[in-house]
Amino acid sequence: TREGASGTRETFEKYVEDDVWGELEDDPKYKAIVSSYGVADGNPAMSQDVTDTDSSCGYVGLAYVDEATQMKFWVIPDEGTTPVEPKQSTILDATYPISRFLHLWTTPDVTVGVEAFLEYLFSPKGQEIVYYEGYVPLYDLSAYDFLYMN
Asked: Taking Cα atoms as reference points, which of 58, 44, 71, 67 lies closest to residue 16?
């Protein structure tokens, strides 16, 4: 599993463990299994730990899926449905159910530099960088791609 302060861990637990946690939290067998989990400090470490450990499983953020070559990330949203691969398009259309928003926090009295950074980040060019780094942009870049990248 990931370290306790990990947002990836929090999201994984919210979507995966909450469904069964009420039944398992008092089960001694479950507690024994969970206490033996290894803890990975970050997405790259999780990917490496799973690669190096037989019969292991783990989870990483979307931007790290391509680097996690030994891991397969498929979710079966509901019994009897087709498995869904995590990628930007399946997160955007909500067919891949395990995702979260990332947030940026500032003080109310932001500096000119911080304001310029945020404006750039939310611009089409900034969102293009978000996309190419493996994250999901806030809006569809296809019109921007057509106008500026072709």
From this structure: 58
CA geometry: angle 58, 130, 128, nearest 5 deg: 145
Distance linking the first and last C-alpha atoms of the chain: 42
- The residue extents of the domains of the chain are 7-92, 112-149
Walk along the chain (150 residues) and give the pLDDT tens digit of each residue. Answer: 777 778 877 777 777 665 555 555 667 776 677 677 788 888 888 888 887 888 777 778 888 777 666 556 667 667 777 888 888 888 888 888 888 888 888 888 989 999 999 999 999 999 999 988 888 888 776 655 544 544
d(CA 120, CA 141): 15
Q: Count of CB atoms within 10 A of residue 131's CB?
A: 15
pTM of the model: 0.65
Q: Output the CA–CA distances (angstroms, integers) from residue 106 to 103, 110, 113, 127, in the order listed.
A: 10, 7, 12, 19
Tokens of 45: 């470490």
